[in-house]
Amino acid sequence: MTTDATLFWDEVHAARPPGDPKPNARLVEAVSDLPPGDALDLGCGNGGDARWLAGRGWTVTATDISAVAVNRLAGPRITAVRHDLRVSLPAGEFDLVTAHYLQTPFELDRSTVLRTAAHALRPGGRLLVVDHGSTAPWSWNQDPDAHFPGPAEIAADLALDPAQWAVERADSPTRLATGPDGQTAQVVDHVLLIRRTA
Fold first, then answer.
1. Rounded to whole angstroms, how far apart are CA atoms 94 and 121?
2. Would you give the DSSP letter of residue 140?
3. Rounded distance, CA 171 to CA 152, Å?
4. What letter does residue 7 receive in the DSSP assignment?
5. 3-state class percentages of the chain: helix first, strand second, coil last, to nearest 5
6. For the residues 154-165, what does the mean pLDDT come to?
7. Which InterPro entries does the annotation name (predicted)?
8. Angle (deg, nearest 10), helices 110-119 and 151-158
C-alpha cells in the first residue's frame, strides 16, 4: 500500500466506475425531514450524498482529498473542491455538515476536523457523523484488533460546549450492506447527530 494519502485515495476512486452512486442510508434517515440549506460534505468520495442533497434542494460544498473523486462530481447546486482535511476545510457557514466513514489508514486528527466543522454551523445547523462500527469483508481495514469508537466516545472527543451544541442522536444500528463486488454482510454503523443551539 502506498504511504501517500492523496495517491492512495486517487487509486481507490480511479478503480471504481463513476456510475450513479447512491446516498448513504444514514444520511437519508437523518436528513429527509430537514429543510434544505447549505451543506458541507466532508470526504465526499463517489458523490452519492452530495448528489442526493442537491436533488433535494440543498446547496452543497463537497470536498475530498482525491482529485479523481472531486473531478467526477459536478452538477447543479454542487461545488466540488479538493482539500486535504489535515490542512484545510472549505470556508463558509453551513446548515448541515456530513462526515460519512471519514476513516483512513493515514494520520488524521478527526476530532479537530469535526470540531472545526461544528464551529462552521449556523445556529440550528447539524453535524452528522457516521462511522464504521464493524469490519466489512471488503473493507481496506481487516485488522481484527481495530477499535471503532462509539458515538458517545466521538462526542466526548469533540469536547463541544453543551451550552451551544446538543446531541440529538447517538446510537449504533445495524444494516445489510452491499460491497463493491455485490457481496452482502451485516454491518454496524456508529451514528452521531449534533445540533448547534446557539
1. 5
2. S
3. 8
4. H
5. 25, 30, 45
6. 96
7. Methyltransf_Superfamily, SAM-dependent_MTases_sf
8. 70
Q: Which CATH number fits domain 5-196: 3.40.50.150, 3.20.20.60, 2.160.10.10, 3.20.170.30?
A: 3.40.50.150
pLDDT digits (tens, 9 = 90+) for 38-58: 999 999 998 999 999 999 999
Is the distance from CB of 198 to CB of 122 less than 8 angstroms? no
**19 to 13, 16, 178: CA distances (angstroms):** 12, 9, 16
Mean pLDDT calculated for residue range 120-131:
97
Lowest mean pLDDT among 12-21, 26-35, 41-50: 12-21
Distance from C-alpha of 102 to C-alpha of 65, rounded to nearest angstrom? 11
CA 74, 44, 120, 7 dihedral sign is negative
Q: Residue type at 111?
A: S
